[in-house]
Amino acid sequence: MKRELLRKLPRVDSLLKHKELEEYGKNIDYYTFSDSIKKGITFFREEILNDNISSFEEKDVIEKIKSIIKKEACYSLRKVINGTGTIIHTNLGRGIFSKETGKHLFDIVTSYCNLEYDIENGKRGSRISHLEKLICKITGAEGALAVNNNAAAVVLCLNEFAEGKEVIVSRGELVEIGGSFRIPEIMKFAGVFLKETGTTNKTYIEDYEKAVNENTAVLMKVHTSNYKINGFTHEPKRDEIKKLAKEKNLISIEDLGSGVLVDFSKYGIKKETTVQEVIKSGIDIVTFSGDKLLGSCQAGIIAGRKDLIERLKKNQYLRTVRIDKMGAAVLEHTLRMYLDEREAVKNIPVLKYITEDTSLVKRRAEKLSTLLNKKNIHNKVIETEANVGGGALPEEKLNSFGVEFLIDIPAYEIENKLRKADTAIIGRIEKNKFILDMKAIEEEEIEFTAHTISSVLGE
User: Fold this and answer.
1) Along the 459 residues of the chain, how does pLDDT read in single tens digits?
2) Which CATH architecture has domain 131-317?
3) 361: phi then psi, degrees, rounded to nearest 5
4) Could you tell me the sign of the dihedral formed by the alpha carbons of 336, 340, 346, 352, in that order?
């Protein structure tokens, strides 16, 4: 029986010329096409040998090969619909850019650009120059530069200002960020020695003062952006740290993490310390991320005293972590919006989602719900809670609306089917119900989302 089935398997050369597969072959390279055919035949051969197939037709092999080609032709990194209710979703690429930023990036990457060319003077320029004045104008800093992420910004600063020396940090600020990267390990990599002071919940300026010795170089403050310690707590004020650093001839650094440039309290959201406030406090150097609450690309931004920034520009480690042309283009375009806060809040998706009126989210939910009901995908609009994500504003919940599915399919199966659609739709399961939260789903994505859901879950 097995021998007969194996003989029945079509040959690779005949399938390469098969009319039904011919169109598929036109859309991919020859290697992927032929390899997919071989994989299809191999699949059936193994199923026959393992007694999992007792009969098959050539059309079954053809369909299997089609599914393999479809999978092989897909890019590994591709678009998804974010119905999780998490705005800065680390697993889904964090925040998104505005369409205008995308158009600007397209112009830069599809042509040559003046990344390191001074057009005005006709000589070699610096990639840092495209961003420094802009960052300084927005934050009030004397100098600034950008690298490829905030961890790199911290390492660069510590390496330049404290290599071989001690850096004092409160025990309550020895954070771990995503991917198990920990402040103590980052400091070790930078070539500095960690000197802990205070306790987990209470640290005073006197603790910093007692920890200072002849080998101390930096007083460091780390923002606990992905968790909060509540109850009996205390931390020294920035002006106290700045004053002590000045008295002891030390450098003060604050890793602000998410990098807020807007006072969210004006929009009914819990206030977070802004970069501008840190600079104004007199802290020598502040570092923060570009792809969290700032709403731009992955980047680490360093701002502060001009003389210290100039030192960082000469550090040899800078070349290994410098920002590339795509990052510089996206960051510049995003930062320009901050010159007018109203424009930033309106056009930077992360800020728009955080501050938008809930009625707009409800309207999007109702639109998707109506479209799905018309396609017999029964559902209802429900109130939900969204969150900022990305280790930012961990306690802040945002009122939102979502679509709860009421079809006779288990929630985990709905989740699995939509996740494996040609364009993955990622939602969440609550109380055995599948929900698409509309907080981070754009108006222009709704019809496409409804069509995809219908094609995957429809009868």
Assistant:
1) 788 888 899 899 889 888 888 878 887 888 989 999 999 999 999 999 998 988 989 999 999 999 998 888 888 899 999 999 999 998 999 989 999 999 999 999 999 999 999 999 999 999 989 999 999 999 999 999 999 999 999 999 999 999 999 999 999 888 876 656 788 888 899 999 999 999 988 999 999 999 999 999 999 999 876 667 777 888 899 999 999 999 999 999 999 988 899 999 888 888 889 999 999 999 999 999 999 999 999 999 999 999 999 999 999 999 999 999 999 999 999 999 999 999 999 999 999 999 999 999 999 999 999 999 999 999 999 999 999 987 777 668 899 999 999 999 999 999 999 999 989 999 999 999 999 999 999 999 999 999 999 999 986
2) 3-Layer(aba) Sandwich (3.40)
3) -70, -40
4) positive
Structure tokens of 93? 């690429």
Query: What is the assigned CATH class of domain 80-92+352-457?
Result: alpha beta
Ranges of CATH 3.40.640.10 domains, the chain = 131-317
Which two three-digit tokens encode residue 385?
A: 């809670």
Phi, psi of 319 (to 5 degrees): -60, -30
- pTM of the complete model beyond 0.85: yes
Cα 457–458–459 angle (5° rounding)? 120
Q: Residues of CATH 3.90.1150.180 domain(s) within the chain?
A: 80-92+352-457
